[in-house]
Amino acid sequence: METAPPQSEQEQQPTQSNEKPGLRKPVFTKVDQLRPGTSGHTLIAKVLSSNTVLQKGRSVSQHLRHTRIAECLIGDETGTIVFTARNDQVDLMQPGATVILRNAKIDMFKGSMRLAVDKWGRVEATDPADFTVKEDNNLSLIEYELVNVVDE
To answer: Quick one: which of 42, 95, 110, 135 has the fewest CB in 10 Å?
Structure first.
């Protein structure tokens, strides 16, 4: 039975340099694994449709930003969900596009799930995906009810 040679002092000490710590590899989630109240999801999805629901200009004040919100139906081979795109995200969410959503979270709106990416996440366009979207499993059509559990 061989034993590993002892590590030198230099190998045992963490290096003190200005390098960034290594980034973790993203764990990709499928649409059918999304649950209410969860966040930190990274997924690849195709955009099926995009409808602008709010568009506010700068007429009120010069200091306020131009606000745009669109509801986009996105999905992968496991199902679909409504994604709420805000401002610059709206431009990326064109029907037929494939996007990567990083650090996405689930928001609840009128009892149903909506996927959103806030300032801590990112939406980026990517190469067209080679999967067929399963359109008959829309997670945003499932209604959830908040139930308060009382400990006795």
So the answer is: 110
